[in-house]
Amino acid sequence: MNPTSSSNKVIIIGGGLGGLSAALRLAKKGFSVQLFERSARLGGKCQVESFAGYSFDTGPSLLTLPAVYRDLFLKTGAPLEEEVTLTPVDPAFDYHFNSGKRLTLPNASRAGVAEAIEKTFGKESAQEWVALMDRAEAMWDVAREPFVESELRGLLPLLRRPGFLASLKTISPFTSLRKMAKRYLTTPELITLIDRYATYTGSDPRKAPAVLLTIAYIEQIFGAWHIAGGIGQLSAALERRAKDLGVEVHLNSEVRSITTTGNKATGIMLANGDQFDADHVISNVDAQFTYKQL
User: Fold this and answer.
1) 3-class SS at 262?
2) Domains (ranges, CATH) in the chain?
């Protein structure tokens, strides 16, 4: 999307990381961007609360795929590392199971993770894990370019991609995360470990899609990272960049509905009745809520 003299006003609903990221890229391209957030601060789930001199992440606490944000910051101004301090988390995870067993996993090391699993649960469990991560890698190879690195322009272009049917089989869109884990794993503790990747999206592993396995693979390849001062520092950095680029931020501004003319979005109406017109409207709110409520 590129601005024109007659079509450059953009409204973004929701000031989470997705909304902020969209605001940065569009403002950098020359669009006039207004961002509306219903709460008193930006950042969505990525917030930090401080008590008695200590800071606590209230949502996510780890950053994966920092390359995504390195690209965003580099293309909209100064590099990411000039805004926040990233530190690899090692060990990445320390699991304590009801069985009494403990599993400590290193950061950014597939071989190291397999070795740790073998040490705790035995060689067969490690081999099963490696096979599952091979499947996760295949899923990532299929999903990375169309869903992470490209703009998805609807279902039809996706269906026309070469090898789409084979890719669909790899991703297994109708298989749950729990079911996929049980296809490969026989160790209850490791099945429980895989279940937790559904919690990243607040989902039930019995219903969440199997493609969430890619998160485990990504962590083992690209690592888990901590941001000094908490994940809220990333939100703050995005907010600073947005304001530097001229994004107009409206806090405490709940959007009641998206106004339309025909099949085209033409603006928004706030809960207090105020209306704002735009040439383009972007919703960073959950898709189901956007379609059913807005």
Assistant:
1) coil
2) 9-60+233-293 (3.50.50.60), 90-223 (no CATH)
On whether the CB atoms of residues 102 and 91 are closer than 8 A, the answer is: no
Which residue matches tokens 């809520």?
A: 289
Euclidean distance between CA atoms 243 and 42, whole angstroms = 12
Low-confidence ranges of the chain (pLDDT < 50): none
Instruction: Output the pLDDT for position 79.
Output: 95
| Cis bond before residue 91 (omega within 30° of 0) | yes
Please, where are the H alpha helices in the chain? 17-29, 66-76, 110-121, 123-143, 155-159, 164-171, 177-184, 188-199, 213-222, 232-244, 287-293
pTM for the whole thing? 0.85
Return d(Cα 106, Cα 113) in angstroms, integer: 6
So what's the pLDDT on residue 93? 95
Which of 280, 262, 261 is closest to 3 using CA atoms? 280
